[in-house]
Known about the structure:
Blueprint: E1 4-8, H1 10-19, H2 26-35, E2 40-44, H3 54-63, E3 68-72, H4 76-84, E4 89-92, H5 112-124, E5 128-133, H6 137-145, E6 150-154, H7 156-160, H8 164-183, E7 187-191, H9 199-203, E8 208-213, H10 215-224, H11 226-240
Parallel strand pairs: 1-2, 1-8, 2-3, 3-4, 4-5, 5-6, 6-7, 7-8
Amino acid sequence: MPVKLGVNIDHIATLRQARGGVDPDPIGAARVCRAAGADVIVAHLRQDRRHIQEADLQELRKLFKRGLHLELSVAPEMLSRGARVRPDSVCLVPESPSEVTTQGGLDLKRNEKAVGKAVEKLKKAGIGVSLFVDPDALSVRAAKSLGADAVELCTLRYAKTTGKHLQQDELEKISLAAYLAEELELELHAGHDLDYSNVAPIAQISNMRCLNIGFAIIARSVFTGLKAAVVEMKRLIVASR
């Protein structure tokens, strides 16, 4: 099966919020991404509203009848606000007010009760649920036991590791976690710090179904334009299969 590309538009909204105006418009960016081959539009509604706003989500839902994926913390308020939009799917992610970006997967052992309630609430609303987890057996098994439909494996350590052998070790961890997810009948996604130089080996994992990528595409678009940046990422993913 082909690997879907989910494009995260948060950083377009970050630029808009920096000036408090209307440009650049994340809704317009989403249109360009879809026209260029993105299968899914991804947006993270943070508690501090540093980029995406509820109004953005409402406009995205009106615009796209399918392929809207939200990232949310397990905070009850955020779950309620996100569920009102009726996205196709939600990925539950850890969230800290002081972080620049997500620092790793959910600690499912420490947050088992809150995550379990969040999964139950979203699934009752007819929303598909994935959990953002580190690529290890305990996390993948915990995601299954909590009722998730999918896991999104955090690729941060893989992306940040330097040296061929060390990066290969990280890739092997992801591959083993992917194999376990397949055994447990969990749909497999991956993301975080993937870019044009490192995406191919992750896309080559046989049961990979979706890669969610944001910053690298938006950063490339400064020089090439957004359409070209999405087209190139899509081409790399397709070629890797």
